[in-house]
């Protein structure tokens, strides 16, 4: 299973990441901790320590409730996102895929080496920077609030969340034919669930179907769609502070990881290299893209025109819906037939 | 034996390969010819496992290369570009291959690159087009795989480099490596190959050197006493290659019990002179009729 040559090929392709990612992670996490507690005037530190002493959960306050970890997570997301683009999207264009597929290894082996390289990079940077952060905390004025549970929870959650999203972007790379579209579709996935629910809800409201939004709480998440949006948005998981980390969130990420890894591997095994350069390399996914694109654009066009038409929002919506349907159908038909060199 | 069985492959709904079948025996050198877009590269890429066939199989010693990719240790594909090596030096790419192909001959690789005057430590990206093709061909042959598939190995290469690449291939063939070469260099293919695979409309027609050298066709210079028999000249078994005054240069099929030749004799021409058949003649006959360039 383990092939040194494949590993070296993947490493050569992404060598820069192995040096840059831990450094960037350190700048977002350990360095910020040093700034706050080691490079600050003693008087300011004392004020902060007093605040911690008065806090409801002192150790949580001392750690800033995970704000540095969240920032680090976002920087790591960016790095892992680009790595996935380099590993799958770019190789379609630069001939690497042709070389790899001609080698005496199964595509599953090739894909697993790619994924393992990303996983190894992520593990290395998360473990290394957590260790550095622990050392820093133990040697800082907040050493009395040191919590191993905190560090392990942040480490585990960050690792799981980023590995799941990295696997998702890799999977998107296995079904899209260009690096540009891999990037676009991956970004769309970040907003798609929330966006789709919002335009669906607005469309229903224009058509006279009132979606009940009870004003019954401070949290503002009482309506079904708000809760759904919260659970389906990747940003919810990425930006979760320490007090919002739950086993349920971790379970959702674990399921996403398992699904994305499995689907990515299956798609890579069946890769249609002859379709490189097209938006999608599989006809089934192309159909899904066409339907999704037409549905979303039609509804958005409907909502847009409904705002422009003064006499009846409903008629405006219908006009926009039909116009959006026609235009988006023509546009996506043309786009899916084109071959891009990006 | 590298065997292609009933291979079908469509791209963008267009059938590129349809029921393609042939075998490459150990030590055999075969050329793949066809017009641009006929499917030569698709055939080689499918045989190398880069593309999956819609139906049919490619088998190396009886094992499907798509189902058992490990058998590709004996099948190497040399594409007509070297983009995939652009991050590597010549030595780096050889080092990479040496970890994959058990028979990789680093001594041969070094010696051949030195013979061609190619630096081992320079990034492949910085090589000229000709140098890139010499490098790629050397790298493919250095694997010492039993079957080497080459896609346009002399594409964009100057005449001197072309000669060097071809001499390298001839040396490998002499050592017993089976080569499948896609090329438009018909003269060179004719000299090097034991057989020719002609791709047209997705199908393959196989011709041995004997077929081309008069076994299945004859090339004649013919002069008719009176009017030329237009209907006969337009028949399927006859191709007019050239025509000056009463003198025609013709290709005749000798299949179908040589009926075309018998008919020709019945016209009682004043001159029938056999000419040597070249691969180019076959190419023109089989592929020159239409405007299809894929």
UniProtKB/TrEMBL annotation, chain A:
One of its GO terms (cellular component) is plasma membrane. It holds the Pfam family ABC2_membrane_5. Keywords: Membrane, Transmembrane, Transmembrane helix. The chain crosses the membrane at residues 16-34, 115-137, 157-177, 184-204, 247-267, 287-309, 315-332. GO terms for molecular function: ABC-type transporter activity. It comes from the Bacteria. PANTHER family: ABC TRANSPORTER PERMEASE YTRC-RELATED (PTHR39177). This is ABC transporter permease. It comes from Cohnella xylanilytica.
UniProtKB/TrEMBL annotation, chain B:
It comes from the Bacteria. The keyword Thylakoid does not apply. GO terms for molecular function: ATP binding; ATP hydrolysis activity. The lineage of its organism: Bacteria, Bacillati, Bacillota, Bacilli, Bacillales. This is ABC transporter ATP-binding protein. Residues 2-226 form the ABC transporter domain. Keywords: ATP-binding, Nucleotide-binding. The keyword Transcription regulation does not apply. It holds the Pfam family ABC_tran. InterPro entries: AAA+_ATPase (IPR003593), ABC_transporter-like_ATP-bd (IPR003439), P-loop_NTPase (IPR027417).
């Amino acid at each position: 299973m383990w092939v040194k040559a494949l590993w070296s090929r993947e490493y050569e392709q992404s060598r820069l990441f192995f040096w840059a990612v831990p450094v960037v992670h350190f700048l977002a996490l350990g360095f910020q901790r040093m700034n706050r507690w080691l490079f600050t005037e003693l008087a300011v530190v004392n004020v902060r320590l007093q605040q911690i002493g008065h806090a409801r959960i002192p150790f949580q306050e001392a750690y800033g409730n995970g704000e540095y970890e969240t920032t680090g997570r976002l920087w790591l997301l960016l790095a892992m996102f680009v790595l996935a683009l380099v590993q799958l999207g770019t190789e379609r264009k630069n001939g690497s895929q042709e070389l790899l597929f001609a080698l005496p290894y199964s595509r599953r082996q090739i894909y697993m080496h790619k994924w393992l390289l990303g996983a190894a990079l992520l593990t290395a940077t998360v473990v290394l920077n957590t260790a550095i952060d622990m050392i820093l905390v133990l040697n800082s004025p907040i050493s009395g609030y040191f919590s191993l549970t905190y560090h392990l929870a942040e480490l585990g959650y960050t690792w799981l969340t980023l590995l799941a999203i990295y696997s998702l972007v890799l999977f998107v790379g296995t079904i899209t034919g260009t690096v540009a579209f891999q990037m676009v579709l991956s970004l769309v996935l970040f907003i798609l669930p929330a966006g789709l629910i919002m335009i669906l809800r607005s469309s229903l409201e224009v058509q006279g179907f009132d979606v009940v939004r009870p004003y019954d709480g401070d949290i503002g998440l009482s309506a079904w769609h708000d809760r759904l949006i919260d659970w389906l948005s990747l940003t919810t998981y990425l930006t979760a502070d320490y007090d919002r980390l739950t086993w349920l969130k971790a379970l959702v990420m674990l399921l996403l990881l398992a699904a994305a890894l499995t689907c990515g591997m299956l798609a890579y095994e069946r890769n249609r290299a002859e379709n490189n350069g097209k938006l999608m390399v599989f006809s089934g996914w192309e159909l899904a893209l066409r339907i999704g694109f037409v549905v979303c654009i039609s509804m958005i066009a409907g909502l847009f025109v409904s705002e422009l038409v003064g006499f009846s929002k409903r008629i405006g919506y219908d006009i926009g819906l039909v116009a959006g349907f026609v235009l988006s159908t023509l546009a996506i038909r043309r786009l899916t037939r084109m071959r891009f060199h990006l | 034996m590298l065997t292609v069985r009933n291979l079908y492959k469509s791209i963008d709904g267009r059938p590129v390969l349809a029921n393609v079948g042939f075998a490459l025996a150990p030590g055999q050198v075969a050329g793949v010819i066809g017009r641009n877009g006929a499917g030569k590269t698709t055939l080689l890429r499918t045989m190398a496992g880069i593309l999956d066939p819609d139906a049919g199989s490619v088998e190396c010693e009886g094992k499907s290369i798509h189902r058992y990719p490990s058998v590709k240790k004996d099948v190497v594909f040399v594409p007509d570009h070297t983009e995939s090596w652009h991050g590597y030096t010549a030595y780096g790419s050889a080092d990479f291959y040496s970890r994959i192909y058990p028979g990789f001959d680093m001594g041969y690789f070094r010696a051949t690159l030195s013979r061609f005057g190619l630096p081992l430590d320079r990034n492949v990206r910085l090589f000229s087009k000709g140098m890139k093709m010499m490098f790629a061909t050397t790298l493919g042959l250095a694997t010492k795989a039993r079957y080497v598939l080459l896609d346009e190995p002399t594409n964009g290469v100057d005449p001197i480099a072309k000669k060097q690449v071809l001499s390298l291939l001839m040396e490998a063939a002499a050592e017993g490596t089976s080569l499948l070469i896609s090329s438009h260099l018909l003269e060179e293919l004719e000299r090097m190959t034991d057989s020719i695979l002609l791709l047209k409309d997705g199908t393959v027609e196989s011709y041995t050197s004997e077929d081309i050298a008069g076994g299945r066709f004859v090339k004649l210079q013919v002069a008719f006493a009176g009017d030329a028999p237009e209907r006969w000249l337009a028949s399927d078994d006859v191709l007019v290659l050239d025509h000056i005054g009463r003198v025609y240069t013709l290709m005749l099929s000798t299949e179908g019990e040589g009926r075309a030749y018998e008919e020709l004799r019945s016209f009682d021409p004043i001159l029938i002179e056999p000419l040597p058949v070249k691969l180019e003649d076959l190419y023109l006959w089989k592929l020159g009729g239409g405007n299809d360039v894929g």
